[in-house]
Amino acid sequence: MDRIKFLGDVKIRPTLIQLLNLGMIICSALMIWKGLMCITGCESPVVVVLTGSMEPGFKRGDILFLHMNKEPIRAGEIVVYNVDGRDIPIVHRVIKAHERRDTGEIDILTKGDNNQVDDISLYSGGQLWLNSHHIIGRAIGYLPYVGYLTIIMTEMPIVKYLLIGVLALLVITSEE
Amino acid sequence: MHSAVQRANTAATIAAILLATICAAASFLDAFNSPSLQAHVQVVKINRFRRQLDGNDEVKMTLKMSMDLTSLFTWNTKQVFVFLAAEYETDTNSLNQVSLWDHIVQEKERASFQVKVPTKYPLIDQGTNLRGKKVGLVLHWHIMPISGRMIQGKMPLSNFSLPDSYTTRS
Lengths: 176, 170
Fold this sequence. Notes:
heterodimer, A: 176 residues, alpha+beta, six-stranded antiparallel beta sheet, 6 strands, B: 170 residues, four-stranded antiparallel beta sheet, 50% strand, signal-anchor (chain B), transmembrane (chain B)
């Protein structure tokens, strides 16, 4: 069995081809990701639900597909927004929307379906409303459970290192 | 011959492709569902209509609603989120949408019902424009699937006019 190459035995050309294949795979994945960003108009077209504040609709570990366009935000839409100063986006539903005649700007109040109170305490400082520039996307589609792996990898980094280690081992020892 | 790892890899890939296809098909078929729902709402009583300390008008009322949402459910429906919004315009705002009441329906059997409830969220204006204002009540729904695309819809119901003066002095 010559699946495990000894160091002295390493041939240059097959190794280079393997590295090139790896590079191609990584580049294709990046292209798909960036392409999705362009099509959907969002910085992160796919997000993982982290909290239970939208249960029973969305549970921890579910994946949401986002989309963003210039259409004004209306009540009832599920939006993903970033509060100034926080880096983790929040996925909640719009319960109030006020659109100004003069500027076209919209004041938005959100609330999680499973929360008792609205999000006003989450907005930074004395901020009373969200505006369009806080919204990074609207949720249009949904897949259950798929994102749970991301949560596990974030909360227990050991799993992430293990996974990368196993993948690296498989790539090095494979013969294609 | 094929090793265990190769077999596991192939099985996992086929499983993933099948799952993705079923999810896409479920979402695709959902688009053909043309719902015909019935709903009726009536404002029973204005409980409180006042100007808050920070200067905005506030209204709390009791609503009597009946609706039949069964035609929104398909086999791919996990729940239907339904809410009633008060919609009106003012001099400064071209559109105001304020949710007064919402409810989650998880089973088709419980999708037809009547309630008489006080508003879950008060109608608060940005300003003091609500006296004598004509407000439209619009029923909105959001169908959340077991997997796939979410579908939104709405249906305007009745209009009503708020009283010309506050019922409680703040």
